[in-house]
């Protein structure tokens, strides 16, 4: 609806507005190895690297053709050698076949067998490009409907379309050739461009040269064709999932009360989506893996004035409350800037509908017809959200074609005989265009969500995100099993037909069938390692519960003997043992939104935490130990509204400088063989991420302080919210929060709380931690920015690679090094230097070089294996040769991933623990059927939790020159999940991998902090400048004065 006919009208508001290598490494024990000298020559973090050459370079191994860095670099043939390498072979036999290892069981999995047609079909494959307004569509939900519409209109170009199989994006398969090999059809602003590509064989015989990924896509497309077709109104497509659009409630007993469609606030519904992943290289044969997820969809016809009411209320409201109570309240409501911001975030890029069905009409006699707000709006005009008008409908003016000024409310009254219910609310403004430049706005009361349920692409409020997690999580494994059995059994759910149906004419035409039963697999529950604490205390998880008590144990379990001493890196046996004593300080950080620049909390929590730390055996400084008063070396209250950030820098510098001053030594030390270690507790009034890392104009104090403490100055810090500090209880046995904080602090300061028993029954762990043949265990990860962070640019748009490695024989203490690189790059820049740093740290702390190097690599897909393995393994080989030509350790390369859809369920749920939702037990190993023919891989579940379905981790042993016995890698990997220092439970990934995650995350925070530091000192950093990049690389690595896992 246009208000006025002026083509240049503008609105205004009166109210403002390898091949493997064997050997053990014969020189690993020599002091004369040249690693130290090599590290010195490398000068990894040099701030003055050679200037970048402007001469075009030849591509190097690992460079990609057409990469952003070298778009014209030729691709040397030598770098194609990675295609010739062989992966590690699967050992003969299996762990399941060894009765002495673990407990044997059988499970069900969410895979089913798929049978291709016995008689091979010859199909024709075409590439399809779908355009709208000359823009190629790449989203399934957009391209699919347009394709089917045009095919139905152009039957001459697309005869016999009933046999067409379209993947909703860019591939079409037909049984009969199209009349033309290539062509184009167009209708209005839509068009299709098609081109013949190849002939495809579809049958049980799969040729070696056949594209398996394409074949998997074809199977998926045939199986889901019926529900993806726009003619099916009970499903909608979004990305890789097919979402149910049920209109009647499901029978809870059918799916064991599993959530399907869940109404949430703000006019949004959580709908269940089903995905199918077809795998052709599994040991069981061709399988389809079913999985489910929930996404937010708009509720049909939801009025936006109700959305505003819920935003004002801070919670959902009922139909009665909306029509009776909120109708009157809205008449006096004033839309705040916060309300506007929330509406803008929610509605961004959404299509909405304008309808006058609830308008108050005035007849010629002045009588009003007032319909209910709950009237179903059947008519309307669709438009895309642009923005809200600065003022309300009563004070937003626009000129008509005669130049006369109108308000929106006045125009409706005079020209349409409609009195607005809520003239005090803003309107939705249409985005002006060259064709339609005139001002146009629709009152909020006439605008709703569109009448079809569509995927919600906006930013939902925090409360809605929390509701989504809370109400859509499948609570127990039996719930999940019941749901999968319903889907896999090809049964109707509520009023939605089965997603896959063997009776579907298209399935029958192509000879494709899916079995209706979940695949049965054999599994082994591996024995748990024995956890060892100080004082000789040992714990073994015999019941496979996956958790135990330490800080909350009565009595508290002590740290390991000798771990409270400063680490003797020179391995001088005659050197005195210096005890670390923690000297606490407090830095209070006020919320930027707090204009009072102060906040209050119960300080007793600080003293309770320091007392709990000492109970573990780590000494702390006391003001009055009998009274439970820990020493407070310094206190600083900071608010960025009032204070210069340099105050924090000066505070931390002073703490570090004066920690071991004579006055403090006399007051707090118990002997001369002690050193006071500053520990700063950062008490935040609010979480810094609340302000989205500077998107609201606020600096992220957490990142800034962490950069200062961990990197620039070298001071241990621990953050905590004031509300959490206030609830810390005096008795740590009854306070879970105390356990979490204390374990983190011990890890940060390098005081080892626990290890795994070396000389016990766990033979694999004994072999891994043998000091005579030591092992360096590496965790490697690359952290990439989110799509939203890429849009912001700057620091947040970079990727960070992290490498962590142990510095002790027992694999308990890890150190890290990180490096920044281009966004999305999985290949690690100068990986050889990072390996050298880890070898250097290991040798410095143990006195020997490792005989074995084991690397757990996260973040890779199967398509990356060849290239990344080749480059990273060569980097390790070259690094070892640089140390000594005689140094030849074994190398094992294991990829770790949770990016898969495979899940396992107990056949008898009574075998599981009720408190863990009757999930499979921690330590459950699966080696058969759903593992691959191509790689040596296995699934291992170590995760515990009270809700949800446990997702196992998938491990690929890609390279292994150690070649131990068949049970070695699964049992060692399981043992490593007991050593994550932040928790007293097994974790879903080996601890080195989790440490690599944390190190990369902390490195990103350091970059942000370093940028803030540079801004304070009026230094401008550019990510295009190689010198600045080197400075930032140095900034994200830990200060050499800190000896602990600061990233935890």
TrEMBL record:
Ranges where the Piwi domain occurs: 703-1008
Superkingdom of the organism of origin: Eukaryota
SMART domains the record matches: Piwi
A molecular-function term among this protein's GO annotations: RNA binding
Ranges of residues in domain PAZ: 342-451
Segments of skewed composition (Gly residues): 17-29
Compositional bias segments (type: Polar residues): 34-46
A matching Pfam family: Piwi
Disordered: annotated segments: 1-76
Database matches in CDD domains: PAZ_argonaute_like
InterPro entries documented for this protein: PAZ_dom, PAZ_dom_sf, Piwi, RNaseH-like_sf, RNaseH_sf
Segments of skewed composition (Low complexity): 1-16
Name of this protein: Piwi domain-containing protein
